[in-house]
Structure formats: C-alpha cells, structure tokens
Amino acid sequence: MLDIVNRKWIYRLMGWTFVYAIILSAVILPTTGYSKTLVVYSGINSQANLLLPYNILILNSKTQQPLEPFTVRGKIVLAHFSTYKILENSRYFLELNRQGLITKKRSQGIDVDEFLVNVNDRRWTQWVLYTFIPQFIRMGFQGIYFDTPKRADLYEDTLDTTINLIKTVHLHYPQLKIMIRDDSRLFDRLYEDIDMVIAESLFSSYDPVKEQYYLLKVVTRDRRIRQINNMFKKKADLKLYILDYWETDDQDGVAKLYSEHERHGFNSFITSINLDWIPPNKP
Amino acid sequence: MLPYQFLILLLCFSIFTQKGFCEQKTVEGFTSEPRTILSLHDDSKNSPYWFDKPHKLAEMPLNHIGLLLRNHNLSQPLPSLSQMKDVRGVLLWMSTDRIADPNRLLRWAIDIIAAGKKLVVMGTPPFDINLKGETTPGYLMDRFWGRLGLKPLSEWVRFTHKVQLIDKNPRVMDFERTFSGVLPSYKKMVATDPRVKVHLTARQFNKPETDTVLVATGPNGGYVAESFALYTTPEGDFIQWYINPFNFFAKAFATDKLAKLDATTMSNRRIYFSHIDGDGWRNLTQIDEYSKDKKLSSEVILKEILEKYPDLPVTVAPIAGDFDERLGQNPSIKKIAKKAFALKHVEIGSHTYSHPLFWQFFEEYSEDKEQQYLWLYPQLKENDFFQQLKSLLDMGRTKKKPQMDTGAWKQALNRIASNENERIKGNNDQEVIMEYRTPRAYYFGPYSLAQEIAESVKEIEKLAPEGKKVKLFQWSGDTLPYEDAILAVEEAGMKNINGGDSRFDRQFPSISWVAPLGRRVGSAWQTYSSNSNENTYTELWSSNFFGFKHLVKTVHNTGTPLRLKPFNVYYHMYSGEKTSSLNALRFNLDYARSLPLTPIAASHFASVVEGAIGADLQRDEKGRWRIVDRGALNTVRFDQALFTRVDFNKSEGVLGQKHHQGSLYIALDKDHEAPIIALTDHPNSGVLPSGRPYMVESSWMVGSLSFPTPHSLKFNSHGYGSGEFVWKTPWKGQFEASLIDDVGDVIDHHVGNIGKNGVLKFSFGSKGLPGGRVEIKNLETD
After folding, report:
1. Nearest to B273 by CA among B282, B283, B263, B281
2. Which of A274, B531, B631, B697 could pair with B611 as two cysteines, CB 3.0-4.6 Å apart?
3. CB B170 to CB A131 under 8 A?
4. Which residue in chain B is spatially nearest to A175 when comparing CA positions?
C-alpha cells in the first residue's frame, strides 16, 4: 500500500517537474539564452556544428565551409561583402591594385590591412557583377549582405554609385536575397530591391581607440528604433535583424542585451567586434 | 586603267584570295563573323573524337561563349586557309604526345596564326618528336611558340616541392578547385611578347629568374601547361577545373564583344522542355492505387503527369515495337498512347522500333553478326502456342526490367575510354554489348534503318489524331547513332535528340559534366538533351528511385551564375512504376512551375539548337550585328554587358532586351528574317533602359511586333500555360491588353496600371489558351 502511495507521489513529482521544465524553457531560457535566428561569423574555417542551428547565416565570403548542409535544411546563407573596402590579403587585391582600383589604406578601422576601393569607377561594378557575385553563387551563397560605410566622409561622393551597384545586382540576380544596413539614405532608395535590413550597434558597440565595448545612449538608440519603424511603413514584409557587439566572456552582459532585444521584439545576434565568435552551447 | 595597274590589282586579288583575306562573304556591308573552333584529333587509334577532351570538356564552355567546335582528324590533310572561312581559331588539346608528322602541323599552325586565326595549346602538344623518334627542328618550334608570344626552355621541372604559384589572375584561376599538395611537373616557358597576359606563374626557390608561364593568353591565342587546366582522377570519374574555361577561352579566342547565339533562352526567359522515352511502357506499375488493377506505368504517367500538367509541354516517344502484337496483345497499350497523343500539350516522338542499344553495331550490320544474341531477346509470340497462351494470360504486360538508355554519356565514355587500349586490341563491340546483353532491346527480324525510323513513325502515327505527326526522334541505348541514321531522321522531316546527360550537382561537382549543344557526326547533327534522365540518378534504375528529384540541383547550377542549359525534364515511362519515382517527377515539374520559364516542345528546342549552329552571324563596320538563316533561334546574348543596351532606332526585328547575370539577352522577332542589332551605352546599370516600348520577358513566343501608334503595339503570340508578359514602355497611367483569336474575337482581356518605371505586367488565362494576336494600348495618351 505504502509502495503504491509512494509511487503516486513519485509520479506526481515527475509530472510537476516536467511542467516546471516546460515553463522554465519557455520563460527563462529565451531571456538568458541566445537568438536562434541570426549568426554573423567572419571566420573561414569549419564551424558547421555551431552554425547549423541558425536560420540566417552571414558568413565571410571566403569561407571554406561547404554551404550545402545549410541550404538543404532551408537556411539562408548570405555572403558578407564590403562595397567599398578590400583586405590586402584578398586574392583579388593585386589585380584590383594593378588596375588602379585601390585608392588608399584605411586610416582607421579594426582591420589595419584594409584598403579603400574606387567605388565610382565602373570597373568596380563590373568586378562585383562579373567576378564576385558569380563566385558567391558558385560557393552556394543565396544572397549578399552589402556592408556599406558607416562614416559619412567615406560615403557622400559614392552614395549614388553604391545604390546603383546594389540595384544592378538585384536587376541581374533577382533570385539573390539582399541585406543592407538600416541606413535611411540607402533604404529610401533601395527598399524595393532588398529583402532584409541589419541594424549594427543598435544597443551596444565597440570603441577601437579605448578598446572597450560600451552601451549606446538610450536617446540615440530610440531615435534609430523610430527610424527602423518608419522603414516598415515603406516595406511591410521587411526582415530586420540586430547585430550588437559585446565582450563575449561577459555572459551576464550578453544575456541582458538579448533580453533588451527581445523586449523590443528584435531578432538579434551578439558577438565580438571581430565577428569571430559563435556561442558554444547554444540551446 | 593602265595595264600595270590592272596587273597589280590582279596580283593583289590573287594574293588576298590565297591568303584567305577575301574569304568572308559580305552582304549589304555585313561580313560573316567566324565562330568555329577547329579541334585537331589524332584518329590513328580509331577512337572517335567524342571520346576526347575537346568534345567532352571544352566544347560546352566554347558553346556558351558563342563558338562551335569542329573536329578535324589528323589522318586527313590539314585544311587550307580557304577551307577555314568560318574558323576563328584552333584548339590543340590532344591526348597523344607523338604524331607522324609534327613538322607539317607546326608549319600549318604558323601559317594560320599569321593569317589571323587564334590558336590555343592545352597541355603538351605532340611537337617535339615524331613517331620514328626524329626530333623536330628547333627553328620551327621557336617560330611557332614565338607566334603565341612564348618561348619554351629545355628544362622540365620535375620536383616541385619548392615551387610557388604566383600572379594568379583570379578571373581565370581557382575556378572549381585550387592547387593543393604536390604540384604537377612542368616544362619551363617564358613570355616574349609584352602583350601576353600571364594568368599563372610558377616560381622556384623564391627566385624571380626561375619564373615560368603556366597559363597565359595573348593576341594570337593562349596556353595552359599540362595538368594545370583541370584536376582529374586516373579513372576520369572526378574532374574539376583549375582554370575558368569560360574566361580563359573568351580571352584566348577574343569573344568578349562577340554576339552569342543563345539556345538556352526564348522570349528572354529560360527555356523549359520535356521528353519521355517510351521504355517501360508495358511495365506493370507497383504504385498501390494502380497496381491492384494491374495498370501499366505508362497509364500512371498519363493520369498523374500528362493530364495533370497541361501547362508543361512534353514529347512522348514510344518504342514502336511495344505496339507490335508479336510481343503480346493488350488493348490498353495502344489506348494509353491514343489518349496521350490527343492531349494538346503532348508532342509525338519516336523512340525507334526495336530500341537499338549499341548503335555502332548496326552501322555495318549483317544478320550473321546478330545471330549469337538471338536467344537472349524476348521471345515473339507468333510461332509458339505456349507463348501465345502465356501472352493472353499476361495481356502483354511485363515485369521485366527495362533495357537502359544508358544515358550516362560521359560516364560510359570514360569507362570505355579508360579501357581504350584493350578495346582496340580486342573485340570492342563485344565489350560494349556486354553492358547491354544484346545489341538492341527487341528483335523483330533483321535490323533495318527504314524500320527503326520510317516504320516506327508510321506505326506511332496510326495512334495519333488526324494530322498530328511525329516531330522528334529520340535516340535509344548508347545514344551514339551513326551518320546515316541521323541523316535518315533528317530526311524523314524530324528533329533528333538525346545523349548529353548533363549533371552538375554534389555527385558531379563540375561543369565538366555539362554537355555541349550536340555532336557532329560527319555531315549530320545530333542535338543532345539538356539534362540527364532518371537513369543516372537511380543507378541505372536499380536503386534510389527517388533520386531523380535531385535534378533540381543541376537545373539550379546550370541556370546560375551562368545560364548554360535550358530546364529539361527527360525521363522514361518506367518512372510511373514506383511511388518514389513518380513523386520525384512531380517534384521536378512543380519546381518548373515555380520558375519564370518559357515552355516549348522538345522538337522546338532541337530546332533552336540547329538554328544556333547553322546561323550566319554577321557584323558591319558600325558594330551592328545581323543574324541570317537562324531557324528557330530567337535569342542573342552579349556578355559583360552591364553598361550596354539595345539601340532600337538602329536595330530591326528586335522584340526586347533583358539584363540578366551580367549579360544582355536580346529577344528577336520570330517572324523577322534577318534581325539587326545595334548596341549603345547604358550608364545607369541598375535600372531598365528606356526608349520605345520593348518586351522584357514573356512565357510565350512572340512575333510580328508592330506599333500602329505611339501609344499602342501589337504582336502575335502563343505558348503553353498562361501567357505572362512584362513590357517596358515610356507610358503612364493605365493600359489595356487584349488577346484576339483568328476570327477577331477577344478571348482574353486585361486592364491594369502601368508601373512607375513604365513597366506593365499582365497575363492571359491559366487554361492554356491557344494564343493569337495581342494588342496593348495606353489608355492615357495625353
């Protein structure tokens, strides 16, 4: 008899534990865990097992990772492509330099071996359309994240050409998914040509001079969020993603940032400024 | 005119004629543009040219950049310049290292380069030494290489562990594969002409003085050192390119500005076509809902595919022998054919009478030769009482595994070629027949070409609605018919197709497995199918019956970033045998429905290909292009055309244009005999060019375009499924589009808003309207 009573209690306990586990996973984990949607990774070596859980992958366009395992599972893999700069170790650098398409070394930036490209030269558009995009497609990428300058001084005289470049890509490769920054100067003229927008450093960022991560001012952040909301008025089916930078060893800080993103209803990814980190134990 | 002036003129005339300067015909200021590449083949081993690299590997990229490959056997005299009017260049990519007379070949090569032909050397040409072991004079070698702007040095670098590859041109190198591990050995070569562009250099011990040219192009052609063009396993079953053959050949043969006659596209959309070989027509299906009534796989295809996809045309080609009552009588066999042929979107084809499997066997046929195989053929019913009884019980249905159209074109060729020496020594026919067991699938008596072609057509047409003819002949078996067979098909008024078997997917990860347009056999032309059939996906129909659904990967990879092939769904009636194979087929057809395509009949595609190879492409001094004798070919493509558009004011017979994947596709009016294309600059590459109204794309074919007023246009159009149209106009406001039949009745009608960029989009019906005259009016003309 006692045995039966004990067994009953054991079953009840197991049942409640199960219910609590469900509640915990539904309520607590999303606020302390990592986003399941987006990953941005600049490494070129294999990280397939860590990357597989994500649905949108922005990867280094030189990645050596075979992309078919992602695409057959319905993931969207975008090539991270800069519209205005190139690394000195790129296999295209010598030829671009020989053709006079490299203008100068970047004076500031995370990567010191970055050089600026003469974006206004037609031949740059030709390189992008005739060489880079076909290469990305052959590698298995389904779209491009066009990384454009954040600083206005790198931009003003190339804005029109940059917009024409992205429009040209869309005209010639309509099947490619296109992602751009949440830059209204771009968005207002490109929203019909693009599929996704990424807001980089919306809540937090990195100061390369002080070499530290910091939170953005609430006023600045809210202003950008309002701008983002306006974008949805022009393109209701816009897909928006947030990319913030934080010290990846600071798990509490990362978790708090994810909570903030979630409170605002954003799909986001938090990583190191070098984009070389993927959460090792993603739920 | 003074006598000496006349003499000088005469002399000039004779010199120019001899040198071939007057060789190209001129029509109204237009001159024919040579687009043939002559490939030299060492036929001393009796191995046909289609086993060799130029056909297997180079011809498809050459086709894509607007060129045609013509084989020349070295056993024949080398062609004179006057015989090379249409030749743009020569490709020397030979498997042999010695030939009988290298001196003769070198002198010829030197002369043709001097006459302005391009020459490309891939690998080590058979120049150094002849079959008797005699060395070729050095001055001849120097003169030859000098013409290419190169100079070979005597040293071979055999140990390459201290060699670095430098100066890689990323547009030419590292295409499908990068060099890794130990590099191949190479002969030292230096560039002597500053105009030569080196795409890959080898450097030893980090010393610039050791630099050797491995890949280069120049004003007179190009060069790729042995083993630096592509990687291949010894068995030849895995191939990947190191060089980008499209870019390399485009530079070497100077085709960047050349107009390309494009057989992949119609009305500025990718072509779709489908064809079924009749194999397995009599097979019992294993699909549950049909098997309980002992239905045939052909009936499953009829009910589940032909009747359910009326928007996708398909050519159904039975094996006429399957209707021969000597194989057993079953009324449903013919009934299925009658029902299928009655469908409007079904074109009728023939897949032979007795289904030859090894065509070469029949080229020099004798009854005696086939005697040894007779016991292996399915028994005919006419003389055997027990067989007749069995036939009545069986009702002519069979569970026998069908004989394969091997499909696996290159795979089969590689297998055969790898055993080439044994084949030559022994009985090569025997060896290939062993792959099939018998030379053909059925035996109804001694072989005759007339039975395979004319009689098969006659028997099949008996089941067709009145007036509906057999349009296409679909090669069976090894799909390597001999010249007379192809000519007989042509004489019977049919187009022909099959062979090729393109694959480009995870299992075949290279464009090497994508076939060229077709195969020239003597004076005849065989058009290859554009995609492989289910055989290569199912281990020759023995396992993985779902495998055909992977066709979509090849379709994707041959569609982007370069459109190399149409979307072709090619299969057999036995796909109706199993649930998984039927599902795979449905998957492919549903995928086709999701894409913007222009569906056409398979015989139409074969006509497009024949148009592409037979047309006369001409150019005038203003850079305008004229296309004559193009048959059904209606697309011209210009590559690297971001900043180029059609100048409609200076063009004729052009329907429209579309920028796609870096190229400019131009749709020609199918009813215009000799369209002229003029191009102009298009600075704003991100938007559709403006100008007079033009067609951007359509799912139907379009012709007889005219502009009755500045605010209206009309054209004839027909096709399959709903007719989808996109036009760019300078108009604003609303437009009205009407489809009008032969008697002048409006059968469909559309009113819509013109987009802000002057783009108007509309479609007609979804039930497969027959087409007719389309009239479009801008409703706001102020």
Report:
1. B263
2. B631
3. yes
4. B560
Same domain, yes or no: B572 and B678: no
Which pair of tokens denotes residue B57? Answer: 């590997």
| B244 within some domain | yes
**Residue B284 carries which DSSP code?**
B
State pTM to two decimals. Answer: 0.91
Q: Which CATH number fits domain A35-84+119-271: 3.40.120.10, 3.30.450.20, 3.20.20.70, 3.40.50.2300?
A: 3.20.20.70
More confident residue, B461 or B418: B461
Q: Pick B661's closest partner by Cβ from A126, A164, A172.
A: A172
Which residues on chain B are in Cβ contact (under 8 Å) with A172? 642, 659-662
The SS3 of residue A188 is helix
Check: CB of residue B376 under 8 Å from CB of residue B424.
Answer: no
Q: What ipTM does this complex have?
A: 0.90
Same domain, yes or no, for B766 and B661?
yes
Q: Which of A48-57, A158-167, B486-495 shows the lowest mean pLDDT across its residues?
A: A48-57
Report pLDDT digits (tens) over B501-531. Answer: 999 999 999 999 999 999 999 999 999 999 9
**Spatial separation of the C-alpha atoms in residues B4 and B8, rounded to whole Å:** 6
Exposure class string for B312-327: b at 16+ Cβ within 10 A, else e: bbbbbbbbbbbbbebb
The answer to whether A125 faces chain B, any CB pair under 8 Å, is: yes
Chain A residues touching residue B688 (CB < 8 angstroms): 171
Write the pLDDT tens digit of every residue in B40-99.
Answer: 999 988 789 998 999 999 999 999 999 999 999 999 999 999 999 999 999 999 988 899
* Domain containing residue B114: 33-258
Contact status of A87 with chain B (Cβ, < 8 Å): no
Residue of B nearest to A164 (CA): B686
> Residue B390: is its pLDDT beyond 70?
no
For residue A106, the tally of other CB atoms under 10 A from its CB is: 16
Is B266 part of any domain? Answer: no
If you count DSSP H runs as helices and E runs as strands, how many of each does chain B have, helices first? 21, 41
pLDDT of the residue at A281: 58
